[in-house]
Amino acid sequence: MSHLTVVIPSYNEEENIESTARAIGEVLGEANIEYDLLFVSDGSKDGTFARVVELSKKDDRIKGLQFSRNFGKEAAIFAGLSKSKGDCVAVIDCDLQHPPATLVQMYRLWEDGYEVIEGIKSSRGKESPIHKLFVSIFYGIMSSLMKIDMNSTSDFKLLDRKAVNALLSLNESNTFFRALSFWVGFKSASVEYDVQERTKGKSKWSFSGLVKYAISNTTSFTTAPLKIIAVVGFIMVIFSIVLGVETLVNYFLHIAVEGFTTVILLLLMIGGCIMVSLGIIGHYLGRIYEEVKGRPRFIIRDETDNL
Ligand code: UDP
Ligand code: MG
Description:
There is one protein chain. The protein is of the alpha/beta class. An eight-stranded mixed beta sheet has the order 7-5-6-4-1-2-3-8, sandwiched between helices. Strand 2 (34-41), helix 2 and strand 3 form a beta-alpha-beta unit. The protein has ten helices and eight strands. The longest helix has 34 residues, at 260-293. The structure holds uridine-5'-diphosphate (UDP) and magnesium ion. The site of uridine-5'-diphosphate (UDP) has 17 residues, from strand 1 and helix 3.
């Protein structure tokens, strides 16, 4: 019989572990799906991993590992994928915002031969207006740069073993799971779900965290900002030719004394453009530096005995 591994990234989720394990277990049990749950504790500072160890002693299908520190959700997802044994692997949040019942729908599609099943948010649930605005700007930019509609995608997915292996074979350390699952291709389907309210605890995202996430994901997925620099540079060149001609004409007509405003404005504009461009190039250089070092994406401190 086929086997499903459910990867659950969890960071300081001690109050959610038990209820999540129970909720997912019940749904999958009712649907007669053979499964194991793999909690990836992303360097949690509370009792998250201790709870998982406790549960794993009672139920062999519950497994877990603990990172040596917080490496981020992407790292947790990839650690889960690399440790998963199932014929198919699902990734779901620990806070039950992704309804477990949707897992069954995804699994049925997998049985029908689909290899990548995306969870699509039919509503974004209760999020603050600032968060919503920011998310929609970020995904708007991402979608147009990557030519993939990202607005309603999430990390809630079910992947066939083939797709999992394809993802694991990518040896980049700055991954963006949500988009890479499109990138690897395969026969894909999607399932809509309603985002639920977080059961307990708070969202782990701060605004600055989201900004960093947005920048890091955009630059890990596309070089478009570098191309935009070239375009801006090109526009500046045309602009400077026009102004250059004007300046020369004024010079020969002997009316060239005025124009300090133009000079100052030009200096500011060019200076600003150069700084921003250098910043963008520097950012990519930093990314290359990180990738070249080839450090592991995560370090595992502890594992449950049954993993
Ligand atoms: N998470 C993680 N590492 C982190 C932050 C979050 O593994 O550094 C996990 C978290 O435990 C949860 C999931 O990622 O299972 C989604 O996080 P959260 O609910 O805080 O994000 P939101 O739902 O608000 O986007
Ligand atoms: Mg959440």
